[in-house]
Amino acid sequence: QVQLVESGGGSVQAGGSLKLSCAAFRDTYSSWCMGWFRQAPGKEREGVAVVESDGSATYADSVKGRFTISQDNAKNTLYLQMNSLKPEDTAMYYCAAKRCGWLEFGYWGRGTQVTVSS
Q1: d(CA 84, CA 34)
Q2: Using CB atoms within 10 A of its CB, is residue 24 exposed (0-12), middle (13-18) or buried (19+)?
Q3: Per-residue pLDDT of the chain (118 residues; tens, 9 = 90+)
Q4: Taking the mean position of all CA atoms in its chain, how far away is CA 112?
Q5: Cα–Cα distance measured from residue 30 to residue 103, given in angstroms and rounded to the nearest whole number
Q6: b/e code 93-114 from CB counts within 10 Å (16+ = b)
Q7: Any residues with CB less than 8 A from the CB of 48 and at least 6 apart, and which?
Q8: What is the DSSP letter of 110?
């Protein structure tokens, strides 16, 4: 069984920063790929950043240069450092996990709300 618990969301003014955390309760014998996704009201869920088991990361064009995904394997925790936040970053942010090699992310947290005001 896999459980993902996000924290760190909140309200911030444009230009500010937030750091999201995702505590991952999962087995340690698999190779896990982790990601952050977001969904704004009335919009489809979109991928924000993904980190592979080797630490390599990919980002959505809209967040490149502003967001950084990282993980602490000793703490089984995934992070998303968000800088230079914009009102359009307002969304519910979800942590997700999959066994590397799977096509789709199969495990999801409940989300944490990020609100950026202008």
Answers
A1: 23
A2: buried
A3: 899 999 999 999 999 999 999 999 887 777 899 999 999 999 999 999 999 988 899 999 999 999 999 999 889 999 999 999 999 999 999 999 999 988 999 999 999 999 999 9
A4: 10
A5: 15
A6: bbbbbbbeeeeebebbbebbeb
A7: 35, 36, 37, 38, 59, 60, 63, 67, 69, 80, 93
A8: -
